[in-house]
């Protein structure tokens, strides 16, 4: 891998010096929308839930509820992402996830998001393979490479460090003074965790959030005017990580993810594009998901004060509260599969090549599985049945780590008798893949 630097663009000095600092992905996309209102995506079908405005405005719930009431899946003939099947019921999603040979995750068929992963820019195919976007047997070998970083033994080893970093950060927050929880807590904790997982230079850890935002926004990736800038950000990311790869390639095996890749036959000969794709997977998967649930917890307790009172008076509910908050937030709204053959599905004829989009966001509000699903209930006895981590062979490899970080955050908040109220602006991510918060202005008091 270290011999392929020329394929990844210019290699700049480590330590941050010389790295491009362009506007954030959010600012770039917002600026494009403002400058080109005529290019706003059109959504003629009222059931086209690929539209990002319904998530930014938090009005997606009744749309999905109506869809679920009418059936497990719906064919959307026209959307900015092409035609697709929208699968909205819990049981239907589990059924499809259990048939990975029929419903492919492979980047060769389009990948795991509603946006086709095979991008073509001015005739140049920009392919980003990643192990979550692979089918067996390639998926199996690469997943096994990184899985040891998330075993129960590793979680126990990391517990003390996560708890100390979480506690130190909570102790640094101002009491009685409004601040942005997303910026001060959610981003800081998850970015720090990623830096430790990659053994990434601590002083440059904010780059991980920056790259995650550029890589994880499906709508941004569909705007051709931003292709060049987005690709530059991804090559910058790959170039930086390639330096880490080169430095670690001569060292003894370590428990960080880069070292695991280097010493794995399944991953140590990756192409530059495959290297980049797996970095995106690990960064977006480890950053956006946990950080948005950390924000969702605070917002959920504020919206349902009776549940905050239960948290404050019954700390033994914290493990279950973690599962319920993940269910309510569902930080990744969907995953996509592609039919490899004609297949009858719940009375519908799915054709080979059809795009099948699994809306986890909807499954986690399915009335057939969860009573009163739009209410946060930290005593819910089946909260763990949520599909926020997926299901089957592609279930999130880092689920244990996400649960650990969230549990420790709640435990450390409780031990400090910390009550967090939403007292200012709430700004949500305008995207159909990552589901979360851009800003959450809060004020701390004590209970």
Can you offer a commentary on this structure?
- This protein is α+β, with helices and mostly antiparallel strands.
- The protein has a single domain (2-446), classed as Cytochrome p450 (Orthogonal Bundle).
- The protein has 16 helices and twelve strands.
- Helix 7 runs antiparallel to helix 12.
- The termini are far apart.
Write the topology of this structure.
Elements: H1 25-35, H2 53-56, H3 61-70, E1 73-76, E2 84-87, H4 90-97, E3 103-104, E4 119-121, E5 124-126, H5 138-146, H6 152-172, E6 179-180, H7 181-198, H8 206-216, H9 218-221, H10 227-248, H11 257-262, H12 272-303, H13 305-313, H14 318-329, E7 334-339, E8 343-345, E9 348-350, E10 355-359, H15 360-363, H16 399-415, E11 418-428, E12 437-446
Parallel strand pairs: 2-10
Antiparallel strand pairs: 1-2, 3-7, 4-5, 6-12, 7-10, 8-9, 11-12
Helix pairs in contact: 6-7, 6-16, 7-12, 8-10, 8-12, 10-12, 12-13, 12-14, 12-16, 14-16
Q: Give the CATH H-level superfamily.
A: Cytochrome P450
Element order: H for helix, E for strand:
HHHEEHEEEHHEHHHHHHHHEEEEHHEE
Q: Please give the radius of gyration in angstroms.
A: 21 Å
CATH architecture level-2 label: Orthogonal Bundle
Strand content: 5-15%
CATH hierarchy class name: Mainly Alpha
Question: Quick one: biggest sheet?
Answer: 5 strands, mixed
Structural class of the helices, strands and pairings? alpha+beta
CATH fold assignment: Cytochrome p450
Please state the overall shape, judged from the principal axes of the Cα atoms.
Answer: globular
The total strand number stands at: 12
Tally of DSSP helical segments: 16
What is the average per-residue confidence, as pLDDT, rounded to a whole number?
86
What is the rounded distance between the termini?
A: 53 Å
């Amino acid at each position: 891998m270290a011999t392929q630097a020329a394929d990844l663009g210019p290699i700049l000095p480590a330590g941050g010096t010389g790295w491009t600092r362009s506007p954030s992905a959010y600012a770039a996309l917002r600026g494009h929308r403002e400058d080109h209102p005529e290019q706003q995506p059109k959504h003629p079908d009222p059931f086209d839930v690929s539209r990002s405005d319904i998530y930014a405005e938090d009005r997606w719930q009744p749309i999905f509820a109506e869809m679920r009431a009418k059936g497990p899946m719906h064919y959307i003939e026209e959307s900015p992402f092409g035609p697709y099947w929208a699968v909205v019921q819990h049981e239907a999603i589990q059924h499809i996830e259990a048939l990975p040979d029929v419903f492919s995750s492979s980047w060769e068929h389009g990948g795991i998001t509603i946006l086709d992963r095979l991008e073509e820019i001015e005739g140049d195919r920009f392919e980003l393979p990643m192990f979550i976007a692979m089918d067996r047997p390639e998926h199996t070998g690469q997943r096994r490479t990184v899985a040891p970083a998330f075993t129960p033994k590793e979680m126990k080893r990391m517990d003390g460090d996560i708890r100390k970093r979480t506690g130190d950060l909570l102790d640094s927050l101002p009491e009685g003074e409004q601040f942005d929880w997303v910026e001060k807590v959610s981003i800081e904790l998850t970015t720090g965790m990623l830096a430790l997982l990659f053994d990434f230079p601590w002083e440059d850890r904010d780059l991980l959030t920056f790259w995650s935002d550029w890589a994880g926004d499906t709508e941004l990736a569909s705007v051709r005017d931003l292709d060049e800038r987005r690709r530059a950000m991804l090559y910058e990311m790959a170039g930086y990580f390639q330096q880490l790869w080169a430095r670690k390639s001569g060292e003894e095996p370590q428990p960080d993810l880069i070292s695991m890749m280097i010493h794995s036959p399944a991953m140590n000969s990756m192409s530059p594009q495959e290297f980049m794709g797996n970095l995106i997977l690990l960064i977006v998967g480890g950053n956006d998901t946990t950080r948005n649930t950390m924000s969702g917890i605070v917002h959920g307790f504020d919206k349902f004060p009776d549940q905050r009172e239960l948290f404050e008076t019954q700390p033994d509910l914290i493990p279950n509260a973690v599962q319920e908050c993940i269910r309510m937030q569902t930080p990744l709204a969907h995953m996509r599969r592609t039919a490899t053959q004609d297949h009858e599905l719940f009375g519908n004829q799915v054709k080979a090549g059809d795009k099948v989009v699994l809306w986890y966001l909807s499954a986690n509000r399915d009335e057939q599985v969860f009573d009163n699903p739009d209410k946060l209930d930290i005593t819910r006895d089946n909260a763990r049945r949520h599909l926020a981590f997926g299901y089957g062979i592609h279930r999130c490899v880092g689920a244990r780590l996400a649960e650990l970080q969230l549990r420790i955050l709640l435990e450390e908040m409780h031990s400090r008798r910390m009550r967090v109220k939403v007292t200012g602006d709430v700004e949500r991510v305008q995207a159909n893949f990552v589901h979360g918060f851009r800003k959450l202005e809060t004020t701390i008091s004590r209970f």
